Amino acid sequence: MQTKTRHFLRRPRVNYNAGVYFTLVLCCLVLNAGGAAYLIARANLERRRKALFALAALVSIALKMILASRWTDYDVGSYDIVSSLILHGRSVYANTERYNYAPLWSYFLAGLKQISLWLPPMGRHGYHLTVAGFLALVDVALAALLGVRYHYNAGIFFLCCPVTIILTGSYSQFDNFGLLAGLAAWLLIRGGRATWDRVLCSAGLLGLSLAIKHIFFLFPIWLIFWSGLGNWRKRLAYATVAYGLFGLSFLPWAMDAPSRAGIIQHVFLYRSRFYFSLLHLVAASRHFWEISGKETSALTLIWMGVLMISGIVAARGKSDLFAMYLLAMVAWSPAMNDYYLALSVLACAIFYPRWPIWSLLASAMAALFSSPGGIFVPPFNHIYYLSILSCQVATGTLFAIQLRQSRPADADRPPPAEIASKALALTVCSYALLFILLVIKAWSFGQTTSSWILPLDNG
User: Fold this and answer.
1) pLDDT tens digit string along 296-332?
2) For the purposes of burial, counting CB atoms within 10 Å of the CB of 290, is it exposed (0-12), middle (13-18) or buried (19 or more)?
3) Which of 47, 157, 288, 393 has the smallest number of Cβ neighbours within 10 A?
4) What pTM does this model have?
5) How far apart are CA 189 and CA 202, in angstroms?
6) Which of 207, 225, 26 has its CA nearest to residue 134?
7) CA dihedral for 352, 353, 359, 362, sign (positive or negative)
8) Contacts for 145-151: CB closer than 8 Å, 24+ residues apart
C-alpha cells in the first residue's frame, strides 16, 4: 500500500488534472454552442433572419481566428504561463505576477492548453488560436442572448462590430466570458419577476461572473438600490450570495501563505500601469506615465464613489440597469485600456441604435488602429490618447442620454442623417476639447504634448 502511494505521488500531476480541465472546457463549449443554437432555433424569427444570424456567427468566428493566427498579445503569453502552472499543480498566485483574477479562468486556460496540445500542429500561434476560438464561441452565445432577449439587431450588431472582432481575435481578452455569465444573471431578474428562485439563481450566476473576472464587483451594490429586485431581504441575500461565491473561489489557495500573499497583492491590490483616462487628465501630476501610489488610491476611490452615485441614480430610472453599469464602469474609469472597450460594445448593442454609439465606435476603432501595443503598431501616440479619452466621452454621453429614457421603439428611431450628424459632431468636439485640455495641461508644466505621450512608443 505504501509503495503504491509513493508511486502515485511521483507521477506528474499534469496527467491527473488534464482530464478535469479538459472536461470543464468541453462542457462550457457544448453549453455555449448548444444554448446559442437552441435560443435562435426557438426564437420567434423569420427563417431568413435565423440564417443571417448563423452566417454572421460563422464569419465573425472566421475573422477572429484569422487575426489570432497573425498576431499575439502579451496577455496570451501570460495565459501560457498560467496554464502550465495549473497543469503541474502549482499555485498561480505564489509563482507569477501575471494573473490578477479569481482562479476559475486559470482552470479554463489549463483545459484549453490541453486541447491545443491534442489538436494537429497549428504553428507558434496554436494556443492563441485555441483560446480565441473558445472566446469567439462565447461571443456567439452573447449575441444569441442579445438577439432573443433584447432585439435581433442587437445580436447582429455585436457579432459584426469590428471592435469585438479585434478584441477577441487579436487580444483574446476574456471579458466577454464574464459578461456572458453576468448578462444571464441579469436576464433572470430584468423583468422584475424577482421570486426567491430567480434571485438565488441570478446571484449564483453573478458570483460565477465575478469568479471569472470581477467586472461586476459593484453591481450587487447597485441592485440593492433597485426596487425591481424586491424587498430588502432579497437584495441583501443577492449581494451575500454573489460576493460569497466570489470569495469561496479563492478557498483552494487561501490556506497557503505564499498564495494568500499573492492573492492580496496581485488581485485585490492590483492597479493598472496605464492611467490614461479623463479622471487622470484632470488629476495627473507632471507626466501622464508617472503616477504616485497616493494618486492611484485617490483616483480609485473617486471612481468607486462616482460609480456608487451613478448606481443610485440609474436604479431609479427606466433604462436597462445592466447596460448602464457597463457604461458607468468605462466612462468614469481611472485607467483606460483597449480591453475595456468590450464593456462599452455590449452596452451599445443593448441600446442600439442611439447616436452616441457611432461616435464611440469611431473613436474605439481609431484607438485600436493607433494603439502602441496593438496589432497595427503605428507611432500615433496623440491619436491613440485622444481616441481612448474620446471613447470615455461618448460612453458618458450615452449614459447621460439613457438615464431618463428607455430604448426607443422602432418607430421612434431618428433618421440616419440625424444619427450620423450628431455622432460626427460629438466625435469632432470631443477630440478638439481633449486636445485643448492636453495642451493646457502640458503648458502648465512647461512641456509639449509630444513630451507627454512619447513613452507610449516604447511601451
Assistant:
1) 778 888 888 999 999 999 988 888 999 999 999 999 9
2) exposed
3) 47
4) 0.90
5) 7
6) 26
7) positive
8) 145/39, 145/180, 145/183, 145/184, 145/187, 146/183, 146/346, 146/349, 146/350, 147/39, 147/40, 147/43, 147/53, 148/39, 148/40, 148/43, 149/187, 149/190, 150/349, 150/350, 151/352
